[in-house]
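Sample 3 of the quickstart, ligand NDP:
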Amino acid sequence: MADIPTVLLPNGISVPALGLGTWNMGEHASAAPIEVESLKRGLDLGMTLLDTAEMYAEGGAEEIAGEAIAGRRDEVFLVSKVYPWNASHQGVIDACDRSLERLTTDHLDLYLLHWRGEHPLEETVAGFEELRRAGKIGAWGVSNFDLDDMQELLELPDGRNCAANQVLYNLSRRGIEYDLLPWCQERGIPIMAYSPIEQGRILRNPELIRIAKAYQATPAQVALAFLLERDGVIAIPKSANPQRVEENAQSVELDLSDEDLDSLDDAFPPPQRKHPLEMI
Ligand code: NDP
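Result:
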């Protein structure tokens, strides 16, 4: 299989542009073995960026992730997220400690504010910076921040240390291409594209199916290849099915032609004006 392309973070660390999501994992004990196996398969295939959150199954997904990375922590770029209501200065520190315990590790590589809440951003950033100095996180970032939120963040003391913004981005949700994506690209802040296959909903699109057939590929692979075409974009598909994880990993081998990219633009038009950032 072709090597997975990489994206450079502002702190100089290079991460795979294709990682692993974990939302909905850890909900049912009976599914745990296949979830762990799926994540391990992804790690074996080089999808070594693993995205989780304290929210997912209220810590259950972090426990699954912890099992999957056991014995191979150094191979993994581990990302977790803090609930907005835990994002006071001390709250961030306490939430991080709980996440580390569930993940059975001593550090996260990237810690994100899951979405913006009531706590002033200055406080959250101060907590993140304290965690960074203590070596408990390698870098911090945000999630679900639109352009105005990002502009406000970068004006704050240490705000420029923001290492990523994780947002909804896929063929059917292209609003960020109008402003947020180019703004982040200019500043070298990667976008982590969540729900990169729109939780499966776009896979029945006839044009996507037509293009996929022409490459002897699947619609999911074309949807992921579309994202991998973009500079500074990291896609984090979730699958609890090892065969689908393999299928998703193989999307890096697809090289979409200009003609097919134009056809995708016709089927999923890029934005012509500002669209407020959508959330799932
Ligand atoms: P995805 O777009 O990754 O889709 C996941 C769904 O698609 C699952 O039902 C999965 O089923 C199915 N699927 C995966 N691969 C394939 C395939 N090749 N063919 C057909 N179906 C497939 O949605 P998510 O919302 O899970 O987003 C990905 C990750 O992004 C999350 O898991 C989470 O880590 C993160 N996220 C972050 C958010 C935030 O606010 N920051 C919000 C939402 C997600 P199955 O498992 O059975 O294969």
